[in-house]
Amino acid sequence: MPNAEKIEKVASIKGRIAASQAILLADYRGLTVHDATELRRSLSSQAKFSVVKNTLLKRAADESGMGELDSILTGPTAVAFVSGDVVAAAKQVVDAAKKFPTLVLKGAWLDGRLLSPDEARSLADLESREVMLSKIAGMLKSEMTRAAGMFQALQSQFVGLLEAYRDKLGPAAPEPEPAVEPERAIEASEAVPEAPDPAPEAEAPIPEPQTQMSEPAEGKE
Length: 221
Hints:
This protein has 221 residues and is of the alpha+beta class. It folds into two domains: 9-126, CATH 3.30.70.1730; 127-168. It has helices spanning 4-18, 33-42, 54-63, 86-99, 117-122, 129-169, 182-190, and strands at residues 22-27, 47-52, 77-82, 104-110, 113-115. It starts with a helix and ends in a 31-residue tail after the last helix. 21% of the residues are buried.
C-alpha cells in the first residue's frame, strides 16, 4: 500500500510529464555531484534535469499512458523533462555525454512514442527551433520581396497599356452643349411679350390772359 509521500511524488512526476514536450532518459552512473550540477545548469533554459527512482517513474509513466518506458527503466535513471526546444535539449545532453562518458542516453519519449538511444541521439543532429524559424522567416521575406517586385512590374505594364490605349483613341471630342428641353422650347415660343404701359398724356398748357393796352390818344393839333 503506497504511503502518502510516494503518492505525492508520483503526482509530481505526472505533472512534470504532462507539462513536457518530451523527456530524455539517461544512465548517470559515475557522474559526480559537480558534473550533475553543471549538466542541470546547462539544461535549465530548456529542461529540468532530475534524478528519479525507477519505481516512482514507472508508476507515473503507467498512469500517464507511457507504459513502454518500462523497458528502459533499468539502473540509475536521470530524466530531463523538456519544456522548451527538444532539439536544443537533446544537443545539450549529447554534448554532456561526450564531456562525461559515464552519462549514457537510454532513450526518449516524444510525440507519444518511445525513441531508442540512437533515435534519441539523432535529435541532436536536427536543426534547432530557432534555426528553423530563422530559415522560414528568410524564405517568407524572399517570397514577399519577389511578390512585391512582380506586383510592381504588373502595375507598370498596366499603366503602359492604358497610356497606349489613350494615345490610340486620340484627343477627346468636345462635349456637346446641352439641348433645350422640348417643353421649355414650346413655352419660350408661345410666350407673348407684354405691351408696355402707355405713357401719360401731356397736359396742354393753359394760355395766359392777354392784357389789351389802349393806344395813346392822338393829340389834337
